[in-house]
């Protein structure tokens, strides 16, 4: 495996680990950010690729919400006008809150 392939695989793996995109859609998402677009004269722009992947993942996460009301009707906002948190987003928020509470209490990690 080449260095470029390894970097591409690592970027996608990390991006998918922070998303709620089902695994069966990963190939569709990957197809939206072609690696060839980030190769210029044989040089791979990893930073631009990672940024494009992040934008694509956020877009898919926005469209694929796990909250369902009724038969086949998905919502992306609750009555307060805020976007509901996905389970992974909630987990990250909980971890930040726990860390803050530990720091306030003078406890080590």
Sequence-ordered SSE layout with sheet pairings:
Elements: H1 3-17, H2 26-31, E1 39-40, E2 43-44, H3 46-63, H4 87-104
Antiparallel strand pairs: 1-2
Helix pairs in contact: 1-3
Question: What is the structure about, briefly put?
Answer:
It is built from 4 helices and 2 strands. It is mainly α and 109 residues long. A two-stranded antiparallel ribbon has the order 1-2.
Quick tags:
two-stranded antiparallel ribbon, 109 residues, mainly alpha, 4% strand
Shape: extended
Count all strands and give the number. 2
Oligomer: single chain
Sheet with most strands: strand arrangement: 1-2
3D architecture notes:
- It is a single chain.
- The chain is mainly alpha-helical.
- It has one domain.
- It contains 4 helices and 2 strands; from the N terminus they run H-H-E-E-H-H.
- A two-stranded antiparallel sheet has the order 1-2.
- Strand 1 and strand 2 form a beta hairpin.
- Helix 1 runs parallel beside helix 3.
- The longest helix has 18 residues.
- 8% of the residues are buried.
- The mean pLDDT is 82.
């Amino acid at each position: 495996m080449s260095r470029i392939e390894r970097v591409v695989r690592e970027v996608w793996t990390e991006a998918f680990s922070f998303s709620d995109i089902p695994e069966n859609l990963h190939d569709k998402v990957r197809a939206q950010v072609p690696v060839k677009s980030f190769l210029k004269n044989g040089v791979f722009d990893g930073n631009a690729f990672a940024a494009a992947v992040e934008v694509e993942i956020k877009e898919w996460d926005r469209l694929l919400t796990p909250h369902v009301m009724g038969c086949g009707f998905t919502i992306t906002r609750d009555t307060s006008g805020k976007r509901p948190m996905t389970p992974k987003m909630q987990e990250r928020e909980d971890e930040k809150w726990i860390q803050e509470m530990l720091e306030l209490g003078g406890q080590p990690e």
